[in-house]
Design a protein that fits this description.
Blueprint: E1 3-9, H1 15-29, E2 32-36, E3 40-44, E4 54-60, E5 64-71, H2 82-100, H3 103-138, H4 146-164, H5 174-180, E6 183-184, H6 185-188, H7 195-198, H8 206-227, H9 229-250, E7 256-257, H10 261-275, H11 282-302, H12 310-335, H13 343-361, H14 366-378, H15 384-403, H16 412-438, H17 444-473, H18 476-496
Antiparallel strand pairs: 1-5, 2-3, 3-4, 4-5, 6-7
Length: 497
């Protein structure tokens, strides 16, 4: 943080008298005097609506007086030159105090400094004791974060390899994520159980991974030393798996989910549980509980927007909270020299059993899996992704074209007008798309799909023509034609499915 210093030479003054004069200068300026040592006094400038306070420290060895001013609120630059101004203000006040302070006032200041030194020693001793208690409870001294660093390294390595493989850094490719093990409903529920774990190490873009790794490190610096590596990695993986299961359960329509956030929320849930016990000293518990509570609440609210798998967040948070209380019970027993060897196996077995039961109960048919696998293989061709984008455009055109037929309020003439002015142009655009799809470099299955789409569009165009004839001529043969063409359309739709 920005700091400024200046040293002035003293004559005919001993150290205690110099410090007493400094004390008087601080009083005259109106700065709050906080601490005193054998050779130093520390004061703080007032906080104002437009600026933070600074610390001003004076130090004297009898022949020199060193004055320093330092920013204390994480400022990067002293833009307004506050430190320089503080030093100038103090030196001016010191010169005035040196010439105008009487002997009685100097002696009174010396006594006040002695009292402040005693109070400072008491404060330091209390802070040291509190720090020892916190360190003992949370095992912060001499600890390392090897597991946290390893998890972060694995995530970054996977992200780099996926980016090289075409996953994208800002704009992501969902097919690549599926290939690498994202939590994709049709595949996870049809045999790829391992996706419940692998998706925890996969991310959709650089912002996603950067935010998650920062949050993991923030909670890891507390939890890994406190829990130990075995408990830490067990909680991380189990809450990640449970978060993945909850995501599948919540998104009945299917989901392609990935990211460490479910497991990270699990670790925050675990930490919240520990913070509601007396295992963590009271002097740090309240501030940590408040900051983590705000973090969790904000991210859950933010997660209500689209594109965020909040179900996984909630699943991780709740499972982490439960594991946290189980760990709290075990830690208490360990302090009583009763090691409970069954806790970690219990959590692992419960997680595996729960995941296995859910996967068995909600198994996806092999036909659905085969269709998805075929689509993913198709996406590996040069025009695979382009083909799927075209197909999505076709669906949009189809929806617009069919909207006319679903409107039962239209009169015959209005219906005929809408068919010709709205539906038919959409089918003509869809026909052009289908012909473009036929020419693409895609798999055989995709070529068949393009042919089927073209057949479907042409049948729909015939349907429009028949309805037009029915409105104009109203003959029984038109009704039969319409029934036949719609039967053909239904058969093609089943083929597309």
């Amino acid at each position: 943080m920005p700091k400024q210093e200046q040293t002035i030479t003293l004559t005919n003054s001993d150290r205690e008298t110099t410090l007493a004069t400094c004390y008087q200068a601080f009083k005259d300026i109106g700065w709050e005097i906080l601490f005193a040592g054998d050779e130093t006094i520390l004061a703080q400038t007032p906080k104002k609506w437009n600026s933070n306070p600074q610390h001003v420290v004076v130090s004297s060895n009898g022949s020199e007086l060193n004055v320093s001013s330092e920013m204390i609120k994480d400022e990067l630059v002293d833009i307004r030159g506050k430190n320089k101004k503080n030093i100038a203000t103090f030196i001016n006040a010191f010169e005035v105090a040196k010439n105008n302070t009487g002997i009685a006032a100097i002696e009174a200041n010396k006594l006040a400094i002695e009292q402040l030194r005693a109070a400072t020693k008491t404060t330091i001793a209390k802070e040291n004791k509190n720090a020892e208690e916190v360190d003992k409870a949370m095992n912060l001294s001499g600890s390392n974060l090897y597991v946290t660093y390893a998890i972060i390294a694995i995530n970054i390595l996977v992200f780099i390899l996926m980016a090289v493989n075409g996953a994208g850094i800002f704009e992501t490719n969902s097919y690549v994520h599926i290939k690498w093990g994202s939590n994709f409903t049709p595949l996870t529920l049809s045999g790829d159980w391992w996706r419940l774990i692998t998706n925890v190490f996969i991310h959709f873009g650089i912002i996603h991974i950067a935010m998650n790794m920062y949050c993991l490190y923030t909670v890891g610096i507390y939890l890994e030393p406190m829990l130990g590596k075995a408990k830490y990695i067990t909680a991380y993986l189990c809450t990640g798996v449970i978060a993945s299961i909850v995501s599948l359960w919540w998104h009945k329509e299917g989901v392609n989910s990935a990211g460490a956030s479910g497991a990270i929320f699990g670790m925050y849930g675990l930490f919240l549980a520990l913070l509601t016990t007396n295992l963590i000293p009271k002097q740090v518990r309240r501030s940590l509980l408040q900051s983590i509570g705000i973090f969790v609440a904000y991210n859950l609210i933010y997660g209500m927007k689209g594109g965020v798998d909040n179900a996984a967040h909630v699943g991780g948070l709740v499972s982490g909270f439960i594991i946290g209380y189980i760990y709290a019970y075990g830690i208490r027993k360990e302090k009583q020299e009763q090691k409970l060897q069954w806790i970690l196996p219990l959590i692992l077995l419960a997680t595996i059993a729960g995941a296995y039961g859910y996967l068995q109960k909600n198994e996806v048919p092999a036909s659905e899996r085969n269709a998805v696998v075929s689509e993913i293989k198709g996406a590996s061709y040069a025009d695979g992704e382009k083909f799927n984008n075209k197909y999505n455009q076709f669906i949009e055109l189809q929806d617009k074209a069919l909207a006319v037929l679903s409107d039962t309020t239209l009169t015959d003439e209005t219906l005929r007008q809408q068919l010709n002015e709205t539906s038919l142009p959409q089918w003509q655009k869809a026909e052009t798309l289908a012909k473009e799809m036929q020419l693409m470099n895609v798999s055989d299955d995709m070529h068949k799909k393009a042919n089927t789409v073209l057949e479907y569009v042409q049948l729909r165009k015939e349907e429009v023509a028949i309805i037009n004839e029915m409105i104009i001529n109203r003959t029984p043969t038109d009704t039969k034609k319409l029934e036949e063409i719609r039967n053909k359309i239904n058969n093609v739709v089943e083929t597309l499915k």
